[in-house]
Design goal:
The chain is of the alpha/beta class. Helices cover 36% and strands 16% of the residues. The protein has 7 helices and 8 strands, in the order H-E-E-E-H-H-H-E-E-E-H-E-E-H-H. The strands form 3 sheets. Strands 1-3-2 form a 3-stranded mixed beta sheet, with helices on one face.
Length: 224
């Protein structure tokens, strides 16, 4: 199943290793708090100097792989990187953080209603995270999109607006919401000092969703 979540909480070394594996280059990586440049790359032959904003420590593998592709061929399209920066702009140190706009009502689905229903059925109402439809990103293949995310620092769940469609079954949207609520409920789950994003306990609890298998089968048919 496709990765559905930010954040991963990588270490600097793990990102360097990941990018070296994707690019087959020697990567010199610097993590910054630069408020004006989120990503800077200088590549020469088999070497590349990369400067990344600290926000990328919580990027999913799809975003990191897109960075690797950009290092290899600088003219590569970067819709995932752009969307990730936009969604995480609040962590940039430039004075007062941008106020997050919460939008639960969609054209076809109401996230508030689904959140409350899932919260009562599976979490005894204890999940206090906020939920909102995410921003509409560039059009691209659905299977390359992040369908949902949970951000620990803002305690916010974002759901991709591609799921606000009459063609998407309510049980599938509820499953995505459940998946992200499960991350919120297990936000203090750590393993050897690093967040265990989809560990054994997470996977065990994820399967408790009543339409778990049905949702996976629909996703496979819709976005193989």
């Amino acid at each position: 199943m496709r990765q559905m979540l930010l954040p991963f909480y990588h270490s600097e070394d793990s990102i360097r290793s990941f990018l070296e594996g994707v690019t087959r280059k020697n990567i010199s990586l610097v993590i910054t708090d630069n408020s004006s440049s989120m990503l800077s790359i200088k590549a020469c032959g088999s070497d590349a100097k990369v400067r990344l904003h600290r926000m990328f420590l919580s990027a999913g593998n799809e975003v990191l792989r897109e960075i690797g592709d950009y290092i290899k061929k600088r003219k590569a399209d970067t819709p995932g990187i752009k969307q990730f920066i936009e969604e995480n702009a609040g962590v940039i140190k430039r004075g007062k953080p941008r106020k997050i706009r919460i939008r639960t009502g969609g054209n076809h689905r109401d996230l508030r209603e689904i959140f409350q229903s899932v919260n009562e059925e599976y979490f005894a109402g204890r999940v206090t995270a906020r939920i909102t439809w995410g921003l509409k990103g560039p059009r691209r293949a659905a299977r390359s999109r992040t369908l949902g995310s949970y951000c620990c620092s803002t305690h916010l769940i974002r759901i991709n607006p591609i799921l606000d469609s009459r063609h998407v079954p309510k049980y599938f949207l509820s499953y995505i919401v459940y998946h992200e609520m499960l991350h919120a409920d297990m936000k203090d789950c750590t393993k050897e000092g690093r967040r265990s994003v989809h560990g054994k306990e997470f996977k065990r609890r994820e399967k408790k969703f009543k339409d778990y298998q049905k949702a996976l089968e629909w996703e496979k048919r819709r976005w193989p």
